[in-house]
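FAQ

Q: What does a record look like?
A: Structure on top, sequence underneath. For example:
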């Protein structure tokens, strides 16, 4: 076992909590959750108006009146529209090229913002959304223009000779056809490009769907694209749409996503800057940070010497002992300067549902809740309350006899795999079935404190070490009485197995380092690193399990984010996944590929209360039922009657 050196826990950034998720979130309230896949959002809205479904998974973008019986919930979103540049390919690997387009996009912002209502978009003049208050650096490099012609002139001046030698139509820009705002942005960009024969010669625009854009961006070694407009789900980056997602904490980490070593699910532009990598690493591993979470709602921690335009006009010369908040501001400045992405618009979003659906947090005091002692209900946040893990547990119809909810999904799924690189719609389904060790205390979140709550964990605490190879340890106990959907007991072995599997083949090497994990080394059959989770998992040195209910993780780096990173990972059952190698991003079993298609009655037939032995076995509030074509047409999940966080007491 590796020596841990001297413990030094005086620098814990905030109090850790063993608070369980509040009783309010226990559920689910219905017996069945059905999802139906539609080819287009308009088709789903038509089905909603006809009473065929109860809610939809996407924001309503049209201002047209909705059918009778359809209600709309408006909420503030934590993400924004952006334009990204592929830093892996020429010529968008060039800083000058990206900055030239930042001038064009400044004028695009102004034009598009005049064509949509203020309720739908607000112009982004920062890297992080303004909601996060003092976390946001507002002293950024500017690309100000005074009209389309001025924008084109500034772009050409910035490009200089960058266009020389480029082949005709060699720069590929993607236009998303089924997202009105994204399409408007790229169409306006095309208009500016066409004003310049030099630009128009080399830049081509290709129309494609939102889902195909995502596939293109993440395909191949370098990606077959140069420029695209997307929607940045801020909370998506660390949580991967995990039930324990924390919208606030993830926004703090977003600016660290563009480290060059990060997987493409985080660093999708392929940004590569040694200086940025250094500052981001310092930000992630600062052990004595100011309370970034508190800074969201206070005006503390802003020193006059760096809280001014003059300091940042000179590039923000950050000292070696800078605290986390200043480092966060520096990272935002570097992104604005290097322009791997250009933020465009933040917005409120509107979600449609049947008016007889309850459990949607939309400010209704009967369906929302307040922080104890507060007067205002907690505002619903993206994805509109309707899509969140907890509201799917609360969601129900006004008629208690109706025990099912029908959800409209507007994109085909890829694989329904908690460890795969899927899309939002995949996670919308699998996150009803799989859970993580930690969740978030939402009451404290609304007070500006991201204090974690236990979920599959019964307790947790951290240790920091000032010397030795081990610099951080995370100690967890697993909640008693939790069962997998097939009736098997949930244990610390499942947790250790999941964490080691994230490392691919290297997980077996780590398992050998302690006798408690060496016992199941042969079960670690995954050979491929899990892209969504590998980044901070690389710091894992070894795992110890003192008993069946306890687990300790030891790391070579210390970071205030490690317990959040590992606390958010979806946990999978070892007794099933040990048979699904060698690539957990595409699980296979006896020639069958895809978790939804994998089953073996010889290993367990299941019954009314428990599922049989199949690929999609989790611990979550809903369990899988077989469907004929779950990726293209839809499927059903049923209430897990033995769910650990339910209204009735657990057995034992």
């Amino acid at each position: 076992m590796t020596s841990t050196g001297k413990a030094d826990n005086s620098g814990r950034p905030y109090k850790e909590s063993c608070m369980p998720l509040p009783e309010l979130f226990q559920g689910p309230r219905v017996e069945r959750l059905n999802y139906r896949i539609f080819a287009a959002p308009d088709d789903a809205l038509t089905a909603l108006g006809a009473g065929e479904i109860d809610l939809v998974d996407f924001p309503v973008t049209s201002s047209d009146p909705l059918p009778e019986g359809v209600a709309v919930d408006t909420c503030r979103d934590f993400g924004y529209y952006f334009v990204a540049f592929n830093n892996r390919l020429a010529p968008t690997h060039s800083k000058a090229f990206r900055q030239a387009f930042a001038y064009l996009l400044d004028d695009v912002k102004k034009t598009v913002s005049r064509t949509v209502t203020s309720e739908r978009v607000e112009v982004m003049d920062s890297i992080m959304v303004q909601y996060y208050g003092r976390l946001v650096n507002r002293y950024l490099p500017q690309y100000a223009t005074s009209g389309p012609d001025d924008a084109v002139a500034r772009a050409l001046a910035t490009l200089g000779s960058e266009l020389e030698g480029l082949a005709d139509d060699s720069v590929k820009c993607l236009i998303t056809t089924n997202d009105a705002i994204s399409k408007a942005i790229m169409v306006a960009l095309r208009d500016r490009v066409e004003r310049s024969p030099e630009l128009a010669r080399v830049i081509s625009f290709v129309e494609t769907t939102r889902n195909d854009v995502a596939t293109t961006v993440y395909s191949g070694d370098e990606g077959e694209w140069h420029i695209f407009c997307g929607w940045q789900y801020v909370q998506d980056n660390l949580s991967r749409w995990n039930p324990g997602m924390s919208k606030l904490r993830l926004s703090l980490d977003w600016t660290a996503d563009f480290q060059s070593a990060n997987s493409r699910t985080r660093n999708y532009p392929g940004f590569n800057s040694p200086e940025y990598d250094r500052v981001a690493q310092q930000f992630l591993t600062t052990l004595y940070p100011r309370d970034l979470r508190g800074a969201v709602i206070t005006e503390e921690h802003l020193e006059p010497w760096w809280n001014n335009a003059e300091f940042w006009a000179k590039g923000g010369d950050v000292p070696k002992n800078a605290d986390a908040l200043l480092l966060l501001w520096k990272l935002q400045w570097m992104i604005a300067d290097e322009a791997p992405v250009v933020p465009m618009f933040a917005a409120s979003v509107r979600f449609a549902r049947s008016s007889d659906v309850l459990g949607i947090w939309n400010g209704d005091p009967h369906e929302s809740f307040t922080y104890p002692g507060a007067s205002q209900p907690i505002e619903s946040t993206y994805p509109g309350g309707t899509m969140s893990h907890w509201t799917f547990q609360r969601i129900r119809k006004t008629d208690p006899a109706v025990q099912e909810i029908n959800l409209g999904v507007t994109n085909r799924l890829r694989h329904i795999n908690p460890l795969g690189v899927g899309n939002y719609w995949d996670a919308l389904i699998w996150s009803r079935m799989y859970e993580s060790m930690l969740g978030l205390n939402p009451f404290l979140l609304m007070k500006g404190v991201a204090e974690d709550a236990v979920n599959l964990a019964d307790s947790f605490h951290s240790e920091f070490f000032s010397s030795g190879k081990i610099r951080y340890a995370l100690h967890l106990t697993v909640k008693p009485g939790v069962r997998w959907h097939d009736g098997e007991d949930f244990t610390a072995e499942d947790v250790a197995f999941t964490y080691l599997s994230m490392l691919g083949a290297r997980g077996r090497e780590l398992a050998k380092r302690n006798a408690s994990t060496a016992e199941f080394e042969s079960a670690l059959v995954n050979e491929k690193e899990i892209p969504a989770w590998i980044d901070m998992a690389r710091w894992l040195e070894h795992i110890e399990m003192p008993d069946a209910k306890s687990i300790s993780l030891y790391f070579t780096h210390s970071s205030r984010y490690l317990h959040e990173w590992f606390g958010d990972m979806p946990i999978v059952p070892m007794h099933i996944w040990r048979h699904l190698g060698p690539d957990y991003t595409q699980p296979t079993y006896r020639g069958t590929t895809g978790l939804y298609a994998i089953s073996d009655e010889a290993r367990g037939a299941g019954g009314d209360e428990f599922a049989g032995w199949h690929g999609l076995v989790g611990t979550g509030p809903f369990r899988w039922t077989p469907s004929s074509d779950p990726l293209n047409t839809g499927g059903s999940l049923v209430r897990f009657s033995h769910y650990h966080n339910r209204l009735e007491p657990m057995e034992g």
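Q: Is there anything notable about this one?
A: Residues 98 and 339 are 6 Å apart (CA to CA).
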